[in-house]
């Protein structure tokens, strides 16, 4: 990601000895919900779920599977989260990977190329 004064960066992630740290920076003039896909960080493994801990409030914030939303991040505020691997993601999720366009069958064929059809009829 790159940023400039018109479009400042809103997310940062980095590896630590305790897990992966995510920083969410609200650059807006009002509180905002901030959503991110876990696999956009190079330190997060696809197919895993992660426990989420707020580093500033020292609270456990549940488990993230594929994505996470921080609710009502204050205007110009920052949320610091620590994500730790908590095992395999639950079975039966659809689509079978975090981003459908990246899903591959075991034979190497993209799933959207082998007849999964309209995704709107599937529950996500």
Write a structural description:
It is globular, with a radius of gyration of 16 Å. β1 and β2 form a beta hairpin. It is 0% helix and 41% strand. The chain is built from no helices and 7 strands. The C terminus is likely disordered. The strands form 2 sheets. The chain has a 5-stranded antiparallel β-sheet with strand order 1-2-7-4-5, with no helix packed on it. A two-stranded antiparallel ribbon has the order 3-6. With 124 residues, the protein is mostly beta strands.
Pick out its properties.
five-stranded antiparallel sheet, two-stranded antiparallel ribbon
Can you summarize this structure?
The chain has strands at residues 11-16, 19-25, 32-37, 48-54, 59-65, 67-73, 78-88. With 124 residues, it is mainly β.
- Estimated radius of gyration: 16 Å
Which structural category do the helix and sheet elements fall into? mainly beta
Q: Secondary-structure element sequence? A: EEEEEEE
Structure annotation, total helices: 0
Distance between the first and last residues' Cα: 27 Å
> How many strands, which pairing sense, and closed or not: the largest β-sheet?
5 strands, antiparallel
Residue windows where pLDDT falls under 50 for at least 5 positions: 117-124
